Amino acid sequence: MSSVTKGADAPLQREIERFGAQVFKAAGSKTGIKELPLLARQMMSFAMEDPVFRSQLFRLVDVFPTLRTDEEILSHMKEYFEGAQDGGRFAKIAAVGTRYATSSKLSRGITLSLTRKNLEGVAQHFIAGTSPKEISKVLTRYRVEGILGTVDVLGEKTLTEPEAAAYATRVEELAAELEKAASGWESTKLDFDTKGEFPKSSISVKSSALSAHYHPLSASVGIREVVNRFETVLKSFGGDSLIVFLDMEDYETKPLTWEVFSTLVRDPRFMDYHLGLVVQVYLRESLIDLNRFVSLSQERVKMGGTPLWVRVVKGAYFDSELVKAEAEGYQTPTFVHKVDSDYNFERAVDLLLGSIEYIRPTFGSHNVRSISYLHAKASELNVPSSDYEVQMLYGMADDLAKAVAGLGKRVRMYIPMGELIPGMSYLVRRLLENTANEGFLRQGFASRGSYKALLKAPKPTSDYYRPSSSEHQLALDQPYQHLGTLEFHRPHVSAEFGRALQAISSRSKPYFPLTVPYVGGREIDRGAKEVSINPAHPGDVVSEVINATSELVDEAVSAAMAALSDWSRTPIERRAGYLMEAARWMHDRRKEIAALEVLEAGKPWKEADADVVEAIDFCNYYAHEMVRLGKGVGLLSPKGEHNDMFYRPKGVAAVIGPWNFPLAIPTGMTVAALVAGNTVVLKPAEQTPATAKVLVDAFRAVGLPDGVLNFLPGPGEEVGAHLVRHKDVAVVAFTGSRSVGLEIIETASKWQKGQVHIKKVIAELGGKDAIIVDSDADLDQVVPGVIYSAFGFSGQKCSACSRLIVLRSSAEQVISRVIGAMDTLLVGDPQRPETDMGPLIDYASQQRLKYYSDMAQSQGEVATAKLAIPDEGYYVLPSVALELPKESPVLTEEIFGPLLAVEIAEDLEEAVWLANSTDYALTAGLFSRSPQNIEFIKNELLAGNIYINRHITGAVPGRHPFGGFKMSGIGSKSGGPDYLFQFLDPYVISENTVRQGFTPDIVN
Amino acid sequence: MSSVTKGADAPLQREIERFGAQVFKAAGSKTGIKELPLLARQMMSFAMEDPVFRSQLFRLVDVFPTLRTDEEILSHMKEYFEGAQDGGRFAKIAAVGTRYATSSKLSRGITLSLTRKNLEGVAQHFIAGTSPKEISKVLTRYRVEGILGTVDVLGEKTLTEPEAAAYATRVEELAAELEKAASGWESTKLDFDTKGEFPKSSISVKSSALSAHYHPLSASVGIREVVNRFETVLKSFGGDSLIVFLDMEDYETKPLTWEVFSTLVRDPRFMDYHLGLVVQVYLRESLIDLNRFVSLSQERVKMGGTPLWVRVVKGAYFDSELVKAEAEGYQTPTFVHKVDSDYNFERAVDLLLGSIEYIRPTFGSHNVRSISYLHAKASELNVPSSDYEVQMLYGMADDLAKAVAGLGKRVRMYIPMGELIPGMSYLVRRLLENTANEGFLRQGFASRGSYKALLKAPKPTSDYYRPSSSEHQLALDQPYQHLGTLEFHRPHVSAEFGRALQAISSRSKPYFPLTVPYVGGREIDRGAKEVSINPAHPGDVVSEVINATSELVDEAVSAAMAALSDWSRTPIERRAGYLMEAARWMHDRRKEIAALEVLEAGKPWKEADADVVEAIDFCNYYAHEMVRLGKGVGLLSPKGEHNDMFYRPKGVAAVIGPWNFPLAIPTGMTVAALVAGNTVVLKPAEQTPATAKVLVDAFRAVGLPDGVLNFLPGPGEEVGAHLVRHKDVAVVAFTGSRSVGLEIIETASKWQKGQVHIKKVIAELGGKDAIIVDSDADLDQVVPGVIYSAFGFSGQKCSACSRLIVLRSSAEQVISRVIGAMDTLLVGDPQRPETDMGPLIDYASQQRLKYYSDMAQSQGEVATAKLAIPDEGYYVLPSVALELPKESPVLTEEIFGPLLAVEIAEDLEEAVWLANSTDYALTAGLFSRSPQNIEFIKNELLAGNIYINRHITGAVPGRHPFGGFKMSGIGSKSGGPDYLFQFLDPYVISENTVRQGFTPDIVN
């Protein structure tokens, strides 16, 4: 890589400035948004001035294609712009005076048709056509002007098998048409480089569109499907007919795309094909990828194949990469400063031009500096202009493209073909680029920066050189933050996880012979034994424990009482310190713990990992929260008096945990109690004692004093009931079923002789959670959101979606895509990485699901996934129940499994009414792009957690404090700022500071 | 009054400057603290530099006389100074290196004796002597230097009858001694003015020291006692022997002192006596008082009496007036800027010199400007120097006094006589004055300001002209603040209150024939009748109501359910608005409502008023709180997601209130429920339906929609129980007895068919509250604090002190003063203003108290107040139980009446252990001046409300969120920031804002 030192690079910079000035001059000032139709141009220019307007405008563009009627368009426009500062502007520009429009039917009609025409006009500016025929005409036209093309088929998100197949077909049709068109074009010098002639035409294909399984953990399935479809496509034309670029998409799928590409280019059948890959230089690891690419091409050339093509781009998924990384707690894979991408682009130029003999490089950019650098560097290295290519986007900067071509460079346009709906997200990305503060088109053309300044070398920030690190700060002096889930898209992470699983299953059985109960620091090793099994292989015993007895409950509570005095007086920071240390202990063993959950709870990899992450988050969050509460709450204090509110522990807490989040939920309840200064007796679920025991191990490892945390596996009817009844238990924290919860509440409310407190019960019970799909919802969001909410961990979450409520107007479309996506779910042993759905937890669950499924069948219709399921294990197939009568128990009772009931509502009000028509109020969801409808449900939908435009499970402590009301529970939200109050008694200190004759706080 | 215009006043100002310069010159620079012994001077000068050091130093001075052993002195010094920035300084000055001192027994002894000597030296500088003999010597010495004197007898706070008598005796002894001394002095011109010769000597007497009842509401008793004692004192010497000044004390007792003075000066027996009053010009109303004084003197002169004396001072209770006003929510009676007092002093000079013919004015000041103004104004008005007098404080500015006397003015020193303990508060006030930023001595002498600047005319601030207003801002857009209690010390307030009482008792009986129950906006007028009676006159029926039935409970809950939908959707600001309006409605009728409580609950005036104030405060506080919560709680939100937590109402709330705070407590629970969006069914206590009904009246008056608040008087066993059991009741808020509370908790926890929520119970139950008295406590604070806490409203508060825990070392002294103070309590009909203790609420209470009193008698000893009580009414006498066995039920069970049990502990640890040895944890108190002991009990004392150095009842919303734990209740504190949570269900909205290809909140 070259470094930018002034002396050495002076001639290079001079050449950049010379060439750049020529480009600017030739392109004129009309490049970029200036090429848009007048009104659209005006709109863009306002968007640049006002970020709020820009956002609202893009929201409108985003939702526009799904709006079916004029009324819908009108109401969305009103909602997005009415009241906004620039609403008037937009109205003027789009010829839509919303007030005016609503006042008269006639003018409203005119207004709307103008708006529609206007937005469609903008779309047409960026999307060249809807059919291969139209597109080939565009290519021909460009060719006349000395410009080449590569065609991209826009598509909706591929969520079902038929969608993947349809996309492949459209690509084949396009290829055929382009082959035909190219045969009519004469060869010119544009079609040659020093390595020879190459195909006259080109397509760009998105791998993700060719499979519904194109995800990191189901990589093996997804890659196989994509390679298969690619082979078919490639075989449909000759190797010299088309250059085929594999577009690069989000970072998560990069390893998959590399795998697809490597497979294809090494396939002897395709040695004469012109195949290209895209590398995004906004990725921190892109230079490594480019080196790898050069090697791959070198290898292929040596094997007698054609040199590989590569397109270097800066990258178009910046927003979503950032959001995803922050949401999941991943390392951000991209540079965060635009200038670093610009700088890295030039390093990519250096690298590729230096390896020119093995490759055919192309460079996608509208940045005149980047293009000029390419030119100057090539000159310096004596690489002829024929041997590299500049690519630009259709509709973005036509005059710029012509100018660069006119200066003797090979230029190729990237030309999208497609319908309005799938095109809109493409369109929004283009509009964003045009209006971004940091974008070159805005700086270079819209804002008329000075040429010289625009041609200056990009100077990397310090972040460019920052070594990547995945260390999470699990420390009290750092603010709380969500721990990242495992980055399974990084191949070594998946591999390690596989090894952790392997390590357990290679042990002798029971894998975990546990020396529990654990009482007052003592391990109990005598008594009746009990086991937990692997629900995917019921014959496999995962762990073996001793069941606790009533006598042991008494002992454990005594131990907890004895430990209370010291523990409650342990400084808060120290108590919080134990939580942080336990969190770090679990963090160091996260893969091993998650692997245990895969075996004991039947959780797929991601779900198992998420449970461990949540357990760590709970430790981290509550530790921070208690430190905050420890500072006390300020109160009003008149002069001469100091008033403060503090909190003390309640005493001994009984924690009774469930099996579905076998580590996270017991951890949350336990560590909240502990950090608040209470001591704990923890009873785990009978199905998952080994996983819950991890928590005990963690706290033993970090030296928690004996008796502070006691652990009693055993049957709920004996151990749980006796614990709840015990006079010295001050708090009961329970997560589980409604019936057990109500029993606990009733039992705990009976005062027992010698009891000197009123028991506090925190109960998280069931849910019957609905997702409502509004008519304007984005189905690309809805379908994966619903599928994951309903079928993730086989629906065995109290937050799982068990009811889908759709509006009649979009019902058919929604239901068919949901069922199609359900059909792509991979059901099987959760030990396999690709498994979307494992078995249910036990036989009783399997029977319960069968019971409700039969009921649904008899009362309505059931669509069940067309899949094979393993013979062994408690599997049931995911299914969707339709046409149920309103009073069906399938619609009102908690089923706790992968059976999704669909209801149809006439309008949103009815949808909300249906959603609220159960005894529960836990989670609920809405997919909508109407601000007014979102506001409406915020006030009307009855649920403890309302999720908008996303899945309804997977609450993260601190972000989504979790818990419901009605029969879904009592107590405030876990992972929220009110939660610890439940383990604490507030007390106020009021100190009169007045002394005889003076008041220290009055200074006079 | 003259105004300060430059032109007209130029000669005056010139004379001020001329005379002032002479004073400064003659006084030299040694005036003020420069007259102190070296070490003390140094100490003072550090105090001026460092306010923290100053505070701690004064705290030490304050506590010093009560410290019995060297160990105690040492530990206090360490606690006050160790770690403080200036600890080292203090150590050096007082020759106390605390670290050094603790390291060696010998040096510690030296250190301590030096410290003691040093502090005593400072005290002796300001206090002239301990016996009349010593004092008369001081006076003789001054007389030689041409300076007169008036002697003040320092005393502890008079809390018992013997203390008042002893003080009178000491004054008499002093008078006799002074009379004797004066007879040995030759008359000089100092003893004459143009009106003739006057007594050679003088005393200054504090009226409050002559009675334990010298308080506004017991004014009639207190004034009678003081006048009687004064008469005896006056009659002990001849009218021409002594000038007697009545000192003015705190603002509250000013009307009493005026009354005493007016009575004495109009008494034909004392027409030839020289009597004087003090007027504090820091009081806003002081010029009015001075006019009144002039009229009084004029009247007396016309009747042939001697002209009256007056001493104008600026005022020495600034801190405590400010603190009291803020604590009680009174108007501040003083100016708040020193300059306004200075300005007002000159207006007083103008007024008095203008009326010189009828009066003998004296002026207390060390301010050279003030003194020079007096001189110049007198010159201008041709008032000879013999006709007015300048007074100064002994030890403050001797050189200044001599200088002024040397310039031909009559100067009189104010000379305190007394022991160290009562002297310390006097001492602290003097030290404060010497070190105050705004004080003249500091500015004029210590800091060496320029003469000219110091002699400038004081320029009043705008506050000087502010019209006084008692309007409380009961408005949502103002921050919440405690409503002031009635200023009974203002005579018209007491008079109005008396009239309000009169108005009720002149009605025919029942005073309040109520048309309740009130259900769904409908008044129920048929059914079984029930009455409430006046516990002071059980034959008087206060109100008559219809008892509700189970059927009516069902109707009321249905009405509340029906009203819920609209009410819960009413915007929060509007709901809060109803509360504010209801608060204003009650505020407008506060005296009438409180008068009703006097009759129905037997509350003394102040207690009744406080209950109304608290009700209004609850409306105001919860309204503000809900507006705050309505804004939602911010949560962590990663990019692309907005997370917020909001709160919704739970549904129908059942509120079951007690009789002891018959308006405030039902109001608190009800309005919290209402403002949170719940609808309410309120069941009042059977004893006080009319008072609780006021709340309903208030909300009806402000238009609360029908059904939102329903009111069901009736027996708890039927109405309360049925309400708690009702399936549609979501919240039960109860305040009352432990047994009923536990029953409610158990009943509410049983799920009822059709119930779609888990009931929330908020229960405020009993207490067995202790006050601990540390060995260094200030008994002047302890005794009134304990008496009020134990016997206020006859101990019928759950927060009342029922156990007094004293350390053996100070036990005798504490117990005897407490019993002595108990003996001064006025027990009688609460309709009389002076009543401290009225009857108990009912016959059952009277019997219960008898039961426990008999038990105490048989198990230990009981001291009962030596008082007569009315024959009629449920009265019991206040009493103190001693020597009880540890396990006595008198020490552990809630008695709810005026029986205070005393326990003796060996040390503070044992005291805390005793305090914690009950099932309850409601309130507790500590009196201590040891920071370390205060810190210790903050962590160890188990109580929901811990009060330090004050009474333990009378929590104010927002300042003292109230409520306990253990068997004292469950739920968070009323009047605190967590309270509303209990009527709300939290819910979280998580909105994914990412759109295809863009994220509106990422600006790029």
Automatic annotation (TrEMBL), chains A, B:
Transmembrane segments: none annotated. GO terms for cellular component: cytoplasmic side of plasma membrane. Coiled coil: none annotated. GO terms for molecular function: DNA-binding transcription factor activity; L-glutamate gamma-semialdehyde dehydrogenase activity; proline dehydrogenase activity. Residues 532-984 form the Aldehyde dehydrogenase domain. It is an enzyme of class 1 (oxidoreductase). This is L-glutamate gamma-semialdehyde dehydrogenase. It comes from Ferrithrix thermotolerans DSM 19514.
